[in-house]
Amino acid sequence: MDVALVALAVLLVLVVLALWYSLRWVRMRRGGGVSVALRWSPDKARAGWHLGIGRYVGDDFAWYRVWSLRVRPDRVFARDSMEIADRRDPSGSEAYAVPAGSTVLRCESDTQEAIEIAMGPGALTGFLSWLESAPPGRRLRRAS
After folding, report:
1. How many angstroms separate the CA atoms of 49 and 118, rounded?
2. 48-83, pLDDT tens digit by residue?
3. Assigned domain for 141 exists
4. Taking a C-beta distance cutoff of 8 angstroms, is the pair 121, 101 a contact?
5. Helix H segments across the chain?
6. CA angle at residue 134 from 78 to 83, to 5 degrees?
7. Whole-angstrom Cα distance, residue 122 to residue 90?
């Protein structure tokens, strides 16, 4: 009897986690999220790609890891400190770790470590537009 009760409790926890994850995923996608792969510390040999959803929240780009139960973003990048340092196509096995048809952007910031962001053509257009836009009277470095 005790084994069945423990098994039922474990099953219930797994169902709740699956439901939580599903609702989180749907909410992020409906809220204007785009599929983005992110790699921090790209100069390190063992730096890998992490799939996620990116959302534009005012002057910030919030990135949520796909395989996470967190409600808050894993990384947040401020538009006014980001600058695109390089643009390239994925190379070698990298093409399998990023969204299909992706372009890889190396972004550098005065306040954070360098990162690489990989995104498809539609997401790239939106990202570049967001990065280059600014309220009147505020100057930003060009992204492209």
Report:
1. 9
2. 899 998 988 888 999 988 877 777 888 999 888 888
3. no
4. yes
5. 2-30, 121-132
6. 45
7. 16
